[in-house]
Structure formats: structure tokens, C-alpha cells
Amino acid sequence: MAFLDGLTSVLSQELVGQLQSFLEALGHRWKLGLTDVRCLELLFRSEGEVTAGALADGLRLSSGAVTQTLDRLEKAGWIARAKSEQDRRQVLVTLAPGRRAQLAEALEPMQQAFGRAAAGATLEELERLRLLATDMVTHLRAEVERMKGQDPQEDEREVRLRFSGRRAMGLEVRGGAAHFELGPAAEPLLVRARAKNRPRVKEDDGRLVVDHLAGGFRIFGGEPARLELSSLVTWDLKLKGGVSGMSADLSLVPLSGLELKGGVSDVKVALPAPKGTVPLRLSGGAANIRFTRPAGTPVRLHLRGGANGLTLDLLEMGSVGGELKWQTPDFAAAVDRYDVELSGGAHHLALLS
Fold first, then answer.
1. In the chain, what is the greatest distance between 2 CA atoms, to the nearest angstrom?
2. 304-321 tens-digit pLDDT
3. Phi and psi at residue 248, in whole multiples of 5°?
4. Do 224 and 217 touch, CB atoms closer than 8 A?
5. How far, in whole angstroms, is CA 285 from its chain's centroid?
6. Domains in the chain, start-ordered, CATH in brackets?
7. Global confidence as pTM
8. Three-class DSSP category at 282
9. Measured distance CA(57)–CA(95) in Å, rounded
10. Measured between alpha carbons, how far is residue 158 from residues 178, 207, 341 in Å?
């Protein structure tokens, strides 16, 4: 057992740790993240075109996350993307011209390290080592699949629901929400809700309902509450009873609608690319609100109750009384767009792309 424990330590901790450190060093040299470099390594080993889906599987990433990785690498000139001629739904990824030689040179020290370590071993010993490593990978893969079939362990402050296959759902937070973050959930979760007190999540008339979501104050060292939603589902979100101190990154979470009701303050929301006309509704007054949408996304704003400190893309206004209607020039003809309606007045509202 002592020998096996030592071997496990060397392989699973020291070797894996050093390989990761090597890739992190490459990323630092090229101003890339570890995931970016791992993606480049996969492409280098493949020696040809790879689908975006295969890269997502190899990197253990969601489709949205691997798309962000590919966006960064393409912008930096490392990769090229093209639609498959056989299946236009598939995206094929290749290394950009000249980059394979650069990667080969950068990865050569790692190859040399393995070569030096294997020097002096017989072919029989190397084959036994290869079989040992292959068996370890096979057994670990089986264990991963077994663990995926189990529900994630929950702590006393959070609730987790597994993805059920439904592609469109409604979710409502009742009783107000304060000091919380909203973002994408890791697969295979549908919803993850965490707060000071364990949230209660139930189904009511076909919608998921969360009762009062609140976190601690950051200035006193408290943790914010967190609500995470599957990126595989298109969500109709309603937050009622007042919303305060919300930081929402919904850039990867599809929306069919978003409603904030009962007064809204200190809210920042990064919106996803819309599909169809997506309504955003705020009522009861708003203060210190910032919505950011993907660049070039058409939007219309209908403001009732006046505003002080209004920013609409590049347009900045001081005080606006009564009712205001504004839209981007391409809104009327657009299919995918946001329709924003705010009633009750606003203080420092920004609607940006």
C-alpha cells in the first residue's frame, strides 16, 4: 500500500501539477489563460480540424464556455473557424497558419522531459508503463461517469436541482431579493440557489419559485447570496417584492423575459444576445441601474415617471420629465431585440451596448 500511495501521489499530484504549471507558464508568456492553452494543446495533438463540440468535451466545458474560449483565441490570431460543409450546424476549428510550428517548439521541452525520464528503460518496461497509465485512465473515467449519476452534495445553505431536459422555464423570486449574484449554473444543474438561510425552491403553476433570496453585507464581511441558472434553458425571470444589490451575468443564460418589480436599486445586468423580442420590465422606481447588452443589439426604451442621469449608449441626458420613448434606428426592422419598459421614475439609469 505504501508503494501505491507513493505512486498515486507522484502521478496525481506532482506530475499533473507540474504539467499544469508548464501550461500556465506558456499562457503567461502568450497572455492567455490556462483553458486557452489547453485548447491549443488539444488542437495541436489532433493534427487537423476539430469540432467545437469535441473541444467542449475534451476541455470539460459547456458549449457557451468553449465558445468564449474560441472567441478569445480567434481574436488573438491563434485559431480559425469555419462551418462544416457536411453539417452546417457544426463549427470546425483549426490552428491558424504558422501557429502549429510555434506550438511544436513551445511544447518540445515537455516532450524532452518525458524522453529523458524514459531513457534507459527497455521496450517491455515502457509497454508495461503505458498499460498501467491506460488502465488508470479507464478506471478513473468509469468513476467519473459513476459520480456524474449521483446528486451533487449540498450544504445546509443551498439548494440544487438537476437539469430535467426542459428547454424553457419560468422562475420567480418572491418576497424580495437583496445582496446577491445571478449567473450561469454548471452542468448538469438546472438551478443552484444559495443564501444566508437555505432558500426554499418549489414549483407553483408550472414555474419554479424561490422564496426571498438575501445575502450578507460585503462591508461586514458577509457573502452575497447566489442564484445560478442552466444555460441550456431559456428563462422567463420575475423578481418581485423589491430588488437591491444585484450583480447579474446573464451573458450565457438565454432569456425570454425579465421583470423586476417593487422597486429596484444598485443593479448591474449583463444581458445575453436576444432571440425574438425580449421584454425587460422594471416597476416601482429604479436607482443606480446598469444594463449592458451585446454590441449592436437593437433596443427600445419606454420610460414613465421621469429620470435623472440617463445614459442611452452614447447619449447622456441630465433630467428628463414625464414620459420618454427612445429606440435604436434598427429596432423597428429587427427580429432579435430588447424592449425595455420602466415605470415609477429612475435615478442614474444606463442602457449600454
1. 85
2. 988 899 999 988 888 888
3. -120, 120
4. no
5. 30
6. 2-118 (1.10.10.10), 158-352 (no CATH)
7. 0.58
8. strand
9. 18
10. 16, 19, 33
